[in-house]
Design goal:
elongated, single chain, 7-stranded antiparallel sheet, alpha+beta, 177 residues, 4 helices
């Protein structure tokens, strides 16, 4: 009886491992919001990491967040590093591409609670007196990430934070425009 129980448990573990291994490696989270402001106003909020305190949803998760800025204040080469509580973790962002009022690409490195490197991008699409801002993040899931994603909807969780950030950015840019 013990042998059968152990064999059944081993079979379940093997099936679980196979199912996890078959999950997609690539992921993308994307959200958009339209703001009654010109593209340069929204672009300025993203292109300067020091302005993120006014709208980034993660800034409010840890009031004691430690921030460090390096390189130019804005644009390509600007660096923002943070250390926070268990909900915010530790990491660094580097602007790798900055096209005024069009696009900002960011290399996003997480160190804690787990190591990962992803690509974030903000695009700005003007339409009359408004701008649609799209915030996306792409990357690769390792085996552990694939297993976690089977139980946690990362698109909903991270996407929800993107939605909060875009809503807060909208308030900031519409107030100042």
């Amino acid at each position: 009886m013990l042998k059968w129980s152990l064999a059944a448990i081993a079979a379940i573990v093997v099936v679980f491992l196979v199912v996890v291994a078959m999950q997609p490696s690539d992921f993308k989270v994307e959200r958009s919001a339209t703001m009654r402001a010109p593209a340069p106003a929204a672009f300025a909020q993203v292109n300067d990491f020091q302005k993120w305190q006014a709208w980034s949803p993660w800034e409010k998760v840890d009031p004691a967040l430690k921030r460090q800025y390096e390189g130019p204040q804005a644009g390509t080469g600007a660096v923002y590093a943070w250390q926070g509580n268990k909900d915010v973790g530790e990491g660094r962002m580097i602007i790798t591409e900055s096209k005024p009022a069009e696009r900002v690409r960011i290399k996003l490195e997480f160190f804690k609670p787990f190591a990962a490197t992803n690509q974030a991008e903000f695009s700005f699409q003007p339409a009359g007196d408004s701008t649609t801002v799209t915030w996306s993040m792409t990357g690769q899931n390792n085996f552990l990430s694939k297993a976690i994603c089977m139980f946690v909807n990362m698109d909903k969780m991270v996407g929800g934070m993107f939605e909060q950030g875009l809503t807060q950015m909208k308030t900031v840019v519409e107030r100042s425009s």
